[in-house]
Amino acid sequence: MLNRGRNIEKGRVITRRMFILAAAKVLLFAGISSRLYNLQISDREKYEILSDKNRIREWKTPPQRGIIVDNFNKVLASNDRVFQLHLILDEINDFDLTVFKIKNLIGLDKFQLKKLYKKKERLKPWDTLVVSDNLTWEQFSKINLYLHELEGAKPVLSTSRFYPYANDLVHIVGYVGDASPKDLEKPEIKENFVPGLKVGKYGIENSQEKMLIGNYGIKRYEVNASGKRISQIDYIKEKQGNKVNLTIDIEIQKYSQELLKGKAGSICAMDIYTGEIVAMASSPTYDPNKFTHGINQKDWQEIRNNPLKPLINKSIAGLYSPGSTFKPLVALAALEYGILDPNKTIRCKGHKHPYELYGVKYHCWKKEGHGYMRLRNAIKQSCDIYFYEMARLLGVDKLSIIAKRYGLGTNVLGDLYKDEKNGLVPDTKWKRRALEQSWYLGETVINGIGQGYIQTTPLQLCLMTAQIANGGYKIKPHIIKDDSINYKNVINKIKLDQSNFPLHERNYLDDINVEYYQRMYHKKSNINFVLDAMFGSTNEQYGTSYKSRYDDLKYQFAGKTGTSQVRRITDLDRELDLDTEQIEYKKRDHALYIAFAPYKDPRYAISVIIEHGGSGSKAAAPLASKLIKRIIDRHKLREQFNNGNTSLA
Amino acid sequence: MLRERIQASNYSFLDKLRSIDYLLILLIIAIGSISVFAIYSTEGGKFSFYTKNHIIRLSVFFSLFLVLSFVRVSTWYKNAYLFYFVGLVLLITVLFFGISASGATRWINLYFLNLQPSELMKIAVIICFARYYHRIQSSDIQSYKFLIQPIILLIIPCYLVIQQPDLGTSILIAGSGIAIIWLAGLNIKYFVYSGLLLLVSLPFVISILKPYQKSRILTFFNPDRDPLGAGYQIIQSKIAIGSGGFFGKGYLKGTQSYLEFLPEKHTDFIFTLFSEEFGFLGSIILLLLYILLIYRIINVGLVSRSFFAKLYCFGFATAIFLYVFVNIAMVLGMLPIVGAPLPIMSYGGSSLLSIMLGLSIVMSCKIYNQEQISVY
After folding, report:
1. How far is A98 from chain B (nearest CA, A)?
2. B340 and chain A in contact, CB less than 8 A
3. Which of A230, A628, B116, B202 could form a disulfide linkage to B350, CB 3.0–4.6 angstroms apart?
């Protein structure tokens, strides 16, 4: 029985201890339950966000760049599909290994590898490294095949810029390239940037970035733990950038470049009423497509070291003395200020008896002299002596007022091109301020033939010509189409004003309601005089560009030659009187020509500059003549197209 | 006395059927079915390898459970030491002929099953200790003479399992053994003293741990220490459970597991998956099922006459509790990740086999609950 009693005691102990254990179990289970409550109910939101962050990954998709078209909607800059390889740096554990694998897959050479490491150093650890932005299809498919072994690698289907007219337009349209840190400071780029995206580096591509860049898209994918995309949850489509419509006629632009082939120089052509730039060529040129994926060293050196300086956009960044092309404006200034009677006669006696002022001799370009000259003849035959005297009478300050009014001395296209130059129209104030010297009368004299301090860009000369040719009305040159203005109306009003002023008091320009359309002349007869003299210069015997004329009224144009000296002409030079070909290239004169066409009812102004081309009549005028024919041939088409467009709008 | 003799010797089959604990069987079936659905979900809703295997194992081991339930409890008692010995031999076999996976050698290839002897050892220790304390007088329990033997019997398998290395299972084996020593009535002061001793020796213990075990413990205290390495499992598991909310993300819609953010989701982290898809509600229901299961096992102990049956049932209930607690606490980030499966739910043959074996002994205790087992 003792045993039994002990057993009862033992049983009690076991049961009691079991209950103690059970109590502990209940407590611990309660602990688990409260933990579950914490996680699933109190902190649910936090973990839901974490879970979504886990499973959802966003990919930015690059926007397509807006296209650039010419006046006729011909595509000047389009987008091609390209294959790219990106590396997401913060997804990579062993960068060297990954790069090694990629190197073996797509075959990078030593130079490219070095570049890659250099690029990586500049990036932040969470940035995307663009390994290649232009893979071949073969490389791209290889990458995709081995993607699971390449941590952080991301094959990207993107687009890249393509310029079908390559060399013909680079100075206008510009080119694109990788965004530099400075580019990324621009808000429009910063907001829309996706790794690998190309941004405008020059020209329209650069200045119209806001229009062209578009908006990136977002693809949200559900991904698994190893980052593999399982399904697409959301896709906010990227938005292509806007189209930029240029006023350029690519056919004329192409032809201009063709005319300049092998030479250094510029051709500009402009509608004298609308201010639309039809062509703006600069030579030599280069291929913007080479810049899209980063230009290679050899090509870059070739462009950089070319003595004819292809990188300079000569139409707006090339500065030249206008030479005799300045003369119509000098004449206009003298007439407007009533300085001189156009019938005043001055005798040009040749090199033996040059114009003299305070003991300094000023020669006419013509050795034998022009003989007795009146103003019309002086313009027509480009007599320097007449202009020396006229400039002396006029004075540099008055001349500069008129020159500035007609478009010289300030940049033409505003901030469209960051390299556009202002040029220089000197006056006495300027000289005192800039050079801290007083003005010499001799400087006025040579200023009268477009030499000396005066510096103009070819586009400024074109604008000047246009504003004289349209009867002295201020226009605003532009290269991007402005649909807000009804140009048909503008042209009608200006023509009404031309024929009625000053018979009627009414200012027809008020009807246009565009602030920059203004009369710039005092007397219409002065403008007409200059235009007539320019007609003589081209279409009458002894005119300096007589050889380039057209007798057909349709193409008949009026122009003015110019030969701008790049250095002082010495007595020795005068004695030698060498042909252009015999002079060292760098020392040859620049050849210039300005013109407007057709003479009856003009519509276009052009300027041609051939660097070191010799005389304007031989080197520049013939090119202008050819171009004018082409422009006039295409005029009807342009008119129809543009009016069709405006009526649609 | 008369009643005892009759009932102890001659049970009719009908009596046996009558005394089966049907609620216990129902619970096993319930948890088993849930486990099938959970494993099916780990495979992304495809009926393939794991699901098929799990169903086969469940049915085979459940049948085994039913059959073994009718083995007399005295038979289990008589063979308790043998059971322990076989377990030990198998553990030693693992040491020499075991097959390895992910850095641990835990399995013996039995061709139809890779047996994990440490899982069997969990049951073997309980049954062995139940027998040991069954015969010891309550007056002797406190004496060192009778304490030294179970300690040795516990240290050998624990040591062998740690060598595999498998800290989790080793702790669970030790836990169930200590539970029975506690139940048998060893003075509380021993537990307090050894607890203090463990605390003092903790730095030493940590120093002999394998680096990965150390990192797991460090990670437990700060999961963000290495979010992509050792802390990854805990962080992802907590995200999965937390994002489940009250009702869960819905069956087969657990993004964390479906998108493979969860590691070992069909074994140790099966609760995470379940909790993500069925939320707080589902988790509490599952927890309640386990509590009921434990309660039923304790109940069998309470109605059993023999100390062996009582000790075994209480011990086994505690073991089940420990498995469930350690596993869930682990996936909830309350304990370090030590590798402990969730009973019945987790995919794994040996674990399921040992649980079913253990349950069949419980059932046998129930069926033969009036059987008196002589001390000798």
Report:
1. 19
2. no
3. B116
